[in-house]
Design a protein that fits this description.
The complex is a heterodimer of chains A (272) and B (324). Chain A is built from ten helices and nine strands. Chain A has 272 residues and is of the alpha/beta class. Chain A has a single domain, classed as Rossmann fold (3-Layer(aba) Sandwich). In chain A, the strands form two sheets. A six-stranded mixed sheet of chain A has the order 5-6-7-3-8-9, with helices on both faces. A three-stranded antiparallel sheet of chain A has the order 2-1-4, covered by helices on one side. In chain A, a hairpin with a 1-residue loop joins strand 8 and strand 9. In chain A, helix 5 packs parallel to helix 6 and helix 9 packs antiparallel against helix 10. The termini of chain A are far apart. Chain B is mostly helical and 324 residues long. Chain B has one domain: ABC transporter involved in vitamin B12 uptake, BtuC. The termini of chain B are far apart. In chain B, 45% of the residues are buried. Classes of the chains: A alpha/beta (272), B mainly alpha (324). Chains A and B meet through strand 5 and helix 3 of A and helix 8 and helix 9 of B.
Chain lengths: 272, 324
Amino acid sequence: MSSFDEINGPPSVIHPLPTGGPPPLEIHDMTVAYHKKPVLWGIDLVVPQGKLVGIVGPNGAGKSTLIKAVMGILPLSSGWVKIFGASFKSNLHRVGYVPQRESVDWDFPVNVMDVVLMGRYGHLGLMKRPSKRDRDIARECLDKVKMLPYANRQISNLSGGQQQRVFLARALAQESDLYFMDEPFAGVDAATESAIIALLHELKARGKTILVVHHDLPTARNYFDMLLLLNMRVVAFGPTDEVFNYELLQKTYGGRLTILSEVAEAVRQKGA
Amino acid sequence: MNSLVPPFDLQQFFLGPWNGDVAGSNFWIVLMGFLVTTACGLVGNYLILRRMALVGDAISHSVLPGIAIAFLISQNRGTLSMFLGALAAGIVTTVIIEVIHKKTRVKQDAAIGIAFTSLFAIGVILISIYTSQVDLDQECVLYGEIAFVPIEPPVKFGGVVLGPLPVVRMGIVAALTILLIWVFYKELLVSSFDPGLALSLGINATLVHYALMSWLSVVVVSAFESVGAILVIAMLILPGATASLLSDRLPVIMGMTVVHAALSSILGVHLATWLNCSSAGAMVVMASVLFTLAWIFSPHDGLIRRFVFRRFLRHEAPAVAEIS
């Protein structure tokens, strides 16, 4: 590991530990590999409670992989992950997940209500069907994302933004304390985008911690309290104001000019 | 005049199968067909939803070496050894497909093609080498012989004759299939729709996958004798595919799968009586006729509905243009 530290120069920006209670997410020296090719190297991360964290980085930086590895969907090559001070398995109910919209088959024969009720499955035992209370919670969650009128709609008849809102409603129905969202803003309309933002802030106000994989740099600065700049390694992690600067973003994105010019523009706006 | 197809006689077609002495055996054939198609169709629904129809194809073939090896070891054609052989074959096939797919650059569809043809060929070799010891007819293994079902030894329970052994066995498998789907409905649904969410909820999607494949092997091996390795694939896919054209709610699709099973087995026996042909083949033909009818008449997305909708659009289009 030491050789990597040398290559990458000065240490990453680390946010101070939160006070009181175990942190929602703690990652120590996590390495993840696909077909023996490492995708994430020696990730160290402590996410404080009640923060809205954006995960940004170029394509192939391992943003989705980070989430999947933390949730045990992908195996770790080394290191460990703690959720609220314990293993992921023992704290399953405290974690909510919104996968990428394209990861599921939207022709699946279920309606909107069925999908949101899946979020309640973690609270139901074997052979138990969703109760009236579960349905009430699901309706409430649908209402929050303004999708209640579509509750009985077949999911293939939804627009991209509506699909995303159904996924968010399902995550809300999980009633978790820590959320992982994989590109919830990808390809959604403006109305959905503002609905998602409002929802994220409401969750945050209730003390929830949210990690969001995000691909659009200019908006990342406005959306999140903290940013995790990722490119196989943690390039920087800290309050958005501290880490959203040209030097660190250039380090994250390397020599990709088109993105860099966007970054330059975004940084200039920040200065103005 | 010598015609290719026997002349169609309405009375013969509708009443033929239920006349006199053939009625008894036709009852068992219809019941067997119904049980096979129900069990296969219900499991098949999940194969379709998981886009794994080809895996069903693979397992139905690779069950052959499993049965042959089980037979060579146990030296009998008992139900238990057959089930164990099929179960082992099903799991081995699933593992081989996964390993080839994950550890090489070969894609999953090609991996399936490699796994099941290799295992099926091993089965063919085993049966032809030990043909004197193995009481398995290759013809029967491939095409099945549902006509022999009524003359199989009957099963008695507490002095009551329940029916021929294959029918009773298939009945138990079909009932267990329904029970398992009822018990694990949530787990099957969420791991089929969104494996990522399933894992985050603590549902082991890999375990569900292997359990489904194992049960598929059990269903296939019990259906095997009556419909054979090739036709069983039709029973896995056709009922679910037909039902999915008619509804977009999973519980309704499950119900329609059972209705499709009943219709195709009854109509199959009628067709077989008229044409004097293989009952299993006739059942599959009727199953695909039902699929075609659903395709044409489906209120959701049928050909007629689409045609009407397009006509409607064409007439409406100018009106819309005028408004804007």
